[in-house]
Design a protein that fits this description.
With about 140 residues, the protein is an all-alpha fold. It is built from 5 helices and no strands. It is rod-shaped, with a radius of gyration of 38 Å.
């Protein structure tokens, strides 16, 4: 029965530019879809980056829990302060003491010394650096008696 109804329909001649309009509409839909997909991908990347920056970092051990790390950090800060002072060149004797303390530290690390053995060596290095900073800040000469 369906075939009888289709046969009764009139002939249709589409205009010649119809296929061009259909292809243009299809192309626009594809471009829109790509743009939406690209935008969604960028939004996902930005959301992921935001989540990563908001995540708490792994907790570090407090400085009081590790005295060796605290002394190393203090030594690094003293070294930076000493490097920033201009009158530091006058304390040549102190530089020798600093070299000796650093040599002792290096030898202790080379033989795999324990933290208990390293603590006094780091303290000695920090004391020498503090003395050098004080001498350089005052502009005085370091002398030994």
């Amino acid at each position: 029965m369906k075939s009888l109804r289709l046969a009764a329909l009139p002939e249709f001649d589409p205009p010649p530019q119809l296929w061009a309009r259909i292809e243009a509409a299809h192309r626009r839909r594809r471009q829109r879809r790509r743009l939406v997909q690209w935008g969604a991908g960028m939004a996902a990347v930005l959301a992921l980056a935001a989540i990563v920056t908001w995540l708490p970092s792994t907790p570090t051990a407090p400085a009081a829990a590790n005295p060796l790390a605290q002394l190393q950090r203090q030594s690094h800060e003293l070294e930076q302060r000493y490097a920033g002072l201009e009158a530091a060149a006058a304390a040549l004797d102190g530089e020798t003491e600093l070299s000796a303390a650093e040599l002792a530290l290096q030898r202790a690390y080379d033989r795999g010394a324990s933290a208990e053995e390293l603590l006094p060596l780091w303290q000695q290095r920090n004391e020498v650096l503090s003395g050098l900073i004080a001498v350089a800040a005052d502009g005085a000469q370091l002398t030994r008696i």
